[in-house]
């Protein structure tokens, strides 16, 4: 059954529950995790294994195919070596909070004490904004790293 509800102009789609047959194919996987995998299109042992147990030498793209990635990495290392003030600006959703936390942990392990900033959804809206940037300038932030922010702006 594919149900939809409408709340405050938001449309929720509740996906169908996985079948008992599908659950029985993967008894070692928690049913909640299995439901999430199924919802995201992982419906075979091969695809599930590829997602849960990736071979990083072949299942993950090289991040250096992104334009100017080497420059970004060099700039981050320079900031760490020079003990510059780094601020990580993430989005307020689950991906943004997670990516901000991971980047914070990595930079801390590399010897920096970065600041973090998650915008207030109601007051600041989506993505990087001018008032936030102005406050970072006042705090003398040397390097601003965004993660999980919209790339179109």
Task: Tell me briefly what this model is.
With 153 residues, this protein is α/β, with parallel strands linked by helices. The chain contains seven helices and five strands. Helices cover 42% and strands 15% of the residues.
Tell me what the structure shows.
The structure is a single chain. This protein is an alpha/beta fold. It folds into 2 domains: 17-60, no CATH class; 63-147, Response regulator (Rossmann fold, 3-Layer(aba) Sandwich), CATH 3.40.50. Helices cover 42% and strands 15% of the residues. The protein has 7 helices and 5 strands. The strands form 2 sheets. Strands 4-3-5 form a 3-stranded parallel β-sheet. Strands 1-2 form a two-stranded antiparallel sheet. The longest helix has 16 residues, at 94-109. The two termini are 39 Å apart.
Features of the shown structure:
7 helices; Rossmann fold; 2 domains; two-stranded antiparallel sheet; three-stranded parallel β-sheet; alpha/beta; 153 residues
